[in-house]
Amino acid sequence: MTVELPIKKLSDYSIFAKEDVDAIFELGKELKGLKVVHVNATAYGGGVAELLMTIVPLMRDAGIDATWEVLEAPMEFFNVTKKFHNTLQGADIEITDEEWALYEKVNEENAKKLNLDADVVIIHDPQPAYVPLYRNSPNTKYIWRCHIDTSTPNLKVWDRLTSKMTIYQKALFHIMDYVRAPFDKIAVEFPPSIDPLSPKNREMSHGEMMEVADRYNINTSKPLITVVARFDPWKDLFSSIDVYRKVKEKHDVQLAIVSAMAKDDPEGWLFFEDVLRYAGTDKDILFLTDLKGVSHLEVNAIQRLSTIGLHTATREGFGLVISEMMWKEHPVVARPVGGVKIQIDDGVNGYLRTEVNDLADAISELLENKTKLDEFGKKAKEKVRRTYLSTAHVRRYLEVIKSVVK
C-alpha cells in the first residue's frame, strides 16, 4: 500500500537549522530525480511512521522522487514480528518453523504487491526485511534501517534472521552499540529526529493548552510528571507508577501516561490492561490514549503542560519521546538505556538513573529547585535543536543514499 503524504517545505525549517537546509538542497541537486522508496510495517502508531510522515515529504522537496510503501499482512504476521522485536532486544522466546514460514510468505507476497521499482529501497526494521530477497532487481540498492536496540539480541533469532540479509549495501543503527555481524562492515550510526513543525511539536497558544487540560482533567496547579510510551513490557510502566508513588510521598503531583495503540502491536492491548490494574483507582494517574481522542496535537499540549518527563524503559531503540519533551524545554529523568543515554546529558539537561528510588529522588530534586528546573529545560531544547531535528535527519539520509548510488 502506498501512503498518501502531506506537502512539506524545507524552507520552513530554515528558522531552526539553516545550515542543514542549505546542505540538503546541495545534495538534492546531485541526486535530483532519484527514485527512493521507504518500506515499513504500518502507516500510523509508533515512531517509525511518524518519522516517515516528515522525512519522505522533505526528501521530495529536495528533488528526490521519494515514496512510502506499507506492508499488507494479517494480524498473525504482526504477532510473529512482535516476537522478533522482543527477541532482537534479548527476550528468550521460541519462534517456531511455522512462524518463520509465515514471516517469509508475507514478505514474498509483499515483494510482488508493493511498488518497489526504484534506485534505492530503504527497509525499516525486521517486518519487511526479507522483501528484497524476492525481487529480481539487480540495479536497485537496498538499505536496512534498524530502529531496535539490538545490543544483546537472542542470537538464535538474530543469526537466523540476518543470515539471509546479505543483499543490503548499508545498515543504519541509532547508535554503534547496536551493531553486530553481519552488518559491522556496512553499519552507519544514524539517530532519528523530531519534526519541529508537526502537530506534536509546533508552538501552541496558552488557550490551546488549557483546552486540552480541561478536556482531560489535568490540574494545572499541580506539577505534572509525564511518560509517553507504548504499552510494551520493555517500557516498564509499572516502574513509572512506582516512581510517581515515591515522589507523591513528598510532593502533590500528577502522573500522565500518554500512549497510542499501534496496529502492529497486538500484545499492547494485554499490557494496557495490566498497567491499568496496577495503577488502581488513583485519580492523579491519568491514562491519556488515542482511545480517548489523544492525537498528536493533544500529546504536544500534554508535554507542554508537563513539569518533568519520565522514561523508565529497560530497553529503548532511541526514544524520540525524550527529544520531544526536551524540545518543549522540560528536563527528562530516565534510565540510561539505548539511545536515551545520548539524548540526556546527565546533570546538564536531565538525569540518568536506574533504580526507582533514584529516579524519584532526581524528580524531587528538580521539583524543589525551580532555577535548576528552568536551566535544565533551556539546555534540553538547545541540545535537540542542534542534533535531533528533521533537517539533520534528511541530510544524513541523502548522504547515505549518495554513498550507495555513487
Automatic annotation (TrEMBL):
Transmembrane spans: none
Alphabetic keyword roster: Carbohydrate metabolism, Glucose metabolism, Glycosyltransferase, Transferase
Molecular-function annotations in GO: glycosyltransferase activity
Domain of life per record: Bacteria
Limits of the Glycosyl transferase family domain: 215-382
UniProt record, GO biological process: glucose metabolic process
Domain Trehalose synthase N-terminal: 38-179
PANTHER family (UniProt xref): SYNTHASE (CCG-9), PUTATIVE (AFU_ORTHOLOGUE AFUA_3G12100)-RELATED (PTHR47779)
Subunit structure as annotated in this protein's UniProt entry: Homodimer.
Family statement: Belongs to the glycosyltransferase group 1 family. Glycosyltransferase 4 subfamily.
Protein name as annotated: Trehalose synthase (ADP-glucose)
The species this protein was found in: Fervidobacterium gondwanense DSM 13020
